[in-house]
Amino acid sequence: MLAEIERERDIDKPAVEDRLLLPSSTGKMAWILGFILLACVVFSACTGALSISVKELTEIVAFKLGLISTTSVEEQKSIVFWVIRLPRVCLAVLIGAGLGIAGASLQGLFRNPIADSTLIGVTSGASLFAIFVLMLNVKYFGMLTELAGAYSISFVAFLGAAFTTFLVYQLSKVAGEGGITTLLLCGIAINAFVGAVTGLMTYLADDQQLRSITFWNLGSLGGATWTSVLAVAPFVGISVLFMPYLSKALNLLVLGESQAASLGVNMKALKQKVIILATMGVGASVAVAGTIGFVGLVVPHIIRTTFGPSHKTLLVGSAIGGAIVLTLADTFSRTIVAPSELPIGILTALLGTPFFIYILWEQKRKRL
C-alpha cells in the first residue's frame, strides 16, 4: 500500500509542477540568477564618476527607509544614488528583462535560434517613427511636443513598433494562411520596406538631424528618470509576468505547427499572445532607450545552453539573464570611456557578436 501511494505521488508530481509557474529546477535557476542580478545591481549602483561603497549604499537605503535616524554619508552621494544612479539601474533591469524574454519567446514561436524582435518589425517600426519625429518635430509635431514634452519621441516610437507589428500580422493573414512561415516572410518584407524608408529619411536629414538619428539608433540609457522607469514598467511587467504561461504551448510547438495543433495548441491564439506580449516589452524598451541589439538574441542561447531547452526555464531565465547583461553593459558603457559615455548599443554588439559566434561554434562541435 505504501509503495502504491509513493508511486501515485511520483506520477502526480509532474502534473502538479505543470500547474505551477516555477517547477523546482526553474525555481533553483531563478534563485541563482536572482542573486547574480542583485550583485550586479549593487555593483552598478556603486560604480561611476562618484564612487559609493557598499557600506555607504546600505546606509543611504537604511536612512531613506527610516531604519536609522542619522547618516554620515555625504548628501551629494545620496542625491546621485536616488536621482541618477538608481533610476538608470532600474531602467536597465526592466529593458534587459523585456528584451531577453521577447527574444526567447520569438525564437520558440518561429522555431529559429536566430529570431528576435526585428523579425516582426518592432525595432524597425520604432526607429522609423522616431526618425519622423526627429526630422519633422518642429513643423508637424509641435502639439505633440507640448503634450508629451521630452517623451514625444518615446510615445511615437512605441506607436510605430505596435503599428508595424500589427501590419506584419495582418499581412500574413492576407498573403497566406497566417502560418508562422508566412508571418516570418511578411516580417522580412515589411522590415525591408521600413528600412528603405528609414534610409531615405536619413538621406534627407541635415547634419543636426543626422546626428540625433545616429545617436538614437545606437541606444542609450543616459536619459533615465523615474518617469521613464514608471512608463516602461507596466509594459515590461505584463510581458514578463504573462509570457511564462505560454511555455507549455511553446514546448509543444517544437514538434511542428500541425503536431502542436493536434495536441490541443490553439496556434492562432498562441501567435497573437506571443507577438502582443513581445511587442509590449520590446516596443516600450526601444521607445525609451533606442535600438539595443543582441540582448534578445544571445541571452536565450546562454540560458538554453546552461539550464536546458524547456521554455519554462528558458523564458524566466532569459528575463533575469537579460536584466543581468544589460545592467553590466550599461555600467561599462558609462565608465569605460569616462567622462564620456559609450552608446550601449555599440557595446552590446561588440561583445555579443563574438560570443554568439562562439555559441554557434560550440553547438556545431557538440553535434560532431
UniProtKB/TrEMBL annotation:
The chain crosses the membrane at residues 29-54, 86-106, 118-136, 148-169, 181-205, 226-246, 274-302, 314-336, 342-361. Keywords: Cell membrane, Membrane, Transmembrane, Transmembrane helix, Transport. It comes from the Bacteria. Belongs to the binding-protein-dependent transport system permease family. FecCD subfamily. The lineage of its organism: Bacteria, Pseudomonadati, Bacteroidota, Cytophagia, Cytophagales. PANTHER family: ABC TRANSPORTER PERMEASE PROTEIN MJ0876-RELATED, FERRIC ENTEROBACTIN TRANSPORT SYSTEM PERMEASE PROTEIN. This is Hemin transport system permease protein HmuU. It is a multi-pass membrane protein. It comes from Dyadobacter linearis. It is found in: Cell membrane.
